[in-house]
Amino acid sequence: MTNIQTPEILPTVMIGLPQWQHGRWPATWFGHTSGSSLSRYASQLNSVEGNTTFYHLPAAETVAGWYKATPAHFRFTFKFHQGISHQGRLSHNISEAAQQLSLLSALEHKLGVVMLQLPASFGPSALPELDRFLAALPSAFHYAVEVRHLAFFAKGEAEKALNRCLIKYRANRVIMDTRALFSGNADCELTAEVRTQKPKVPVNVIATSDQPVIRFVGNNNDSDNMRCLMPWITKCHEWRLAGKTCYLFFHRPDNQDAPWLAQQFIQQYNARFAAYALPELTFNPTQTESPQSSLF
């Protein structure tokens, strides 16, 4: 039986962007340039998709600074380093994964989900490697796995095997939603470039554990974004009522506009589920619109 919860004890929705600083945000979003970008960011959003660890690991002092700069309710979601996910066999990189987790453990409860982003070359034959890898990880952390091989989206035996593996280890399946990004013709060179970098895969909606992760990549057309966002409003609310903590990360071709995409979701969610309202963002009073387009 589904565990329906009341607004007072309902899990929140963790909403974030793929970065916590951008050269344009002090003027267009924060309204001033003083203070830590992370602190300003964390005063409005409660999570972040930390891509930085995919490319290089921070010093322990840096991690401690992140902890101090954020409120108690904030949650970081970092990726395993690419040397773990993209180089060699996963089972050969378990010690490196343990070292990264030890480093990030200084974030304590603020470490929300650790994501393993696998390349498109990681196919069904490699699932035993994933099984061994997940089995060896410390159970004290929450994990999410992103796959890009098309066999894992075909609703066949490969996808079923993947989902069984994730459920077995209570790992969340990352849901990549790039429908808006690939809608219509590319409106600029940047959009065309981003389309070459993001996977165009089906949106198979499943929660294999209690922290479903959605990476939503919009375009520069608010109508396209709204059309693709609306189903997530319903689904996230259903997951909240079932006691799950959703993580939504919003991308735009130029992420200077990503805060407005997050706000677009929040406003529509609150309009539909006012009793369960999420905190809205506040922008520089002189910047009433997104740098590229209005919200609606």
Your description of this structure?
The chain is built from eleven helices and eight strands. The chain has helices spanning 25-30, 37-42, 52-55, 60-69, 82-85, 94-104, 127-136, 157-168, 189-197, 222-241, 258-272; strands at residues 13-16, 47-50, 75-79, 111-117, 143-146, 172-177, 213-217, 246-251. An eight-stranded parallel sheet has the order 1-8-7-6-5-4-3-2. The chain is 36% helix and 14% strand. It has one domain (7-276): TIM Barrel. The model has no long low-confidence stretch (mean pLDDT 92). By secondary structure, the protein is of the alpha/beta class. The chain starts with 12 loop residues before the first strand and ends in a 24-residue tail after the last helix.
For the biggest β-sheet, the strand order reads 1-8-7-6-5-4-3-2
Q: What's the CATH H-level superfamily name?
A: Protein of unknown function UPF0759
| Proportion of residues in β-strands | 5-15%
Q: Count the DSSP helices.
A: 11
Tell me about the largest β-sheet: 8 strands, parallel
Count of DSSP strands: 8
Rg for CA atoms = 19 Å
Average pLDDT rating: 92
Helix content: 25-40%
Number of separate domains: 1
CATH architecture: Alpha-Beta Barrel
The name of the CATH topology is TIM Barrel
List low-confidence stretches: none
SSE map:
Blueprint: E1 13-16, H1 25-30, H2 37-42, E2 47-50, H3 52-55, H4 60-69, E3 75-79, H5 82-85, H6 94-104, E4 111-117, H7 127-136, E5 143-146, H8 157-168, E6 172-177, H9 189-197, E7 213-217, H10 222-241, E8 246-251, H11 258-272
Parallel strand pairs: 1-8, 2-3, 3-4, 4-5, 5-6, 6-7, 7-8
Helix pairs in contact: 7-8, 10-11
